[in-house]
Structures are given as C-alpha cells and as structure tokens.
Amino acid sequence: QLRPVESGGGLVQSGGSLRLSCVVSGFTFENYVIGWFRQAPGKEREGVSCISSSGGYTNYADSVKGRFTISRDNAKDTVYLQMNSLKPEDTAVYYCAAVHRESTTQNMCGMTRILYFYWGQGTQVTVSS
Length: 129
What we know:
With 129 residues, the chain is mainly beta. It has no helices and eleven strands. The strands form two sheets. Strands 2, 4, 5, 6, 9, 10 and 11 form a seven-stranded mixed sheet that branches. It has a four-stranded antiparallel sheet with strand order 1-3-8-7, with no helix packed on it. The protein is globular.
C-alpha cells in the first residue's frame, strides 16, 4: 500500500526555516498529486499547500503564502516544503498526503482533506517565540 513518509520536522526559533520532505516510493510517483496538511493541538487538520503531479501547478493557504514553497523532484520520488519566516502559529504536526492524478482535476491540486487517499504519519514542527 502506498504510504508517504515525512521527515525534516523539528524545533526552530521564530523567524527560522525548516525543509520538510515527503517520500512516496514503490509507485509511479509522477502520477500522484501531493498535499501538505497540518494539525495543531485542539484544531482541525488544515491544508497548507499542494502540487500537481507534473509540478506545474501549486497552491498555498493564505496563512503561508510568501513564506512556504512546495516543490517536487520526480526523479527522487520526493516532495519538499520549504518553510521560511516561521511563526509560533505554524507549530503543528505536518502531514503529507497523496492521491492519483486520475482522481483529481487535471493538472491541478486541491487542499481539501477528503481529496486525498494516502496519508503519512506526520512530522512535528515546533516554532518557539
């Protein structure tokens, strides 16, 4: 079964940076749309960013626009989330999720949780003030 694997989380001071990675191996990676979600304690899981299977389309939550950048390297079966200018409110468990491109709007991606079939275990990001 397809299972994304996240890494790169950790503790960082406000204003710092982290880069999260999501590896999806064992499948034809370039056929999958990838989304990043996060869940803070006591809050709903929310969409952060997503990238189409080709990498030609990306989308971001308003709260992270201009600070986070999503990218993918299909040769390495990996999607990255570069997070800059981190704030304490970015503290959460970050999840990577995948869905086959045939289940989504062509050449696009969405940040709605129910769109995604496969989920990783998550990686903790903590931003101290």
